[in-house]
Amino acid sequence: ALREANARQAGTETPEALRTRLRTRLGELNTQLGEMAGDLLFGVDSRGVIIAQVGGVAPPANAGLGAFPLVQRALEGYVRDDVWAWNGELYRMAARPVVENGQYIGAIVHGKRIDDAFASRVVSRLSGASLAFFLREQIVGSAMPNNVGAMAEPSTASRNECA
User: Where are the alpha helices (DSSP H) in the chain?
Assistant: First the structure.
């Protein structure tokens, strides 16, 4: 689908059948990621134009992400990650090139919303850390470890020994 999208003349709209085909395939692949499925997923052509999107508000025709450094680097062949504020929400983004016959024909851009569930997944992989993500003045996601290193209520015996 990305190869076909690249074959169209610059500035012309991508046929809806092609957009639908890529959107369906992105959805299938995203489902395979289980709990790490993206909340926002883009398939972009070699110019960075959004050909298909899963999740989020649909972009206008011929909208592009090619000016974003994350997408630029993916289109150059690098796997990269970033954090984006997108439509008032915070996302952990990752992008990778799509390669066909040794040529970069586009990129897949994956976004996972940063919220309490995301923060909990990160905290579960850290040792005793508390975590909060901010978007301006607002906390958009936070988590604390489950009683790791938390002070327990002293027993009656130990309270009496202190008295």
Answer: 2-7, 16-31, 69-75, 116-123, 156-162
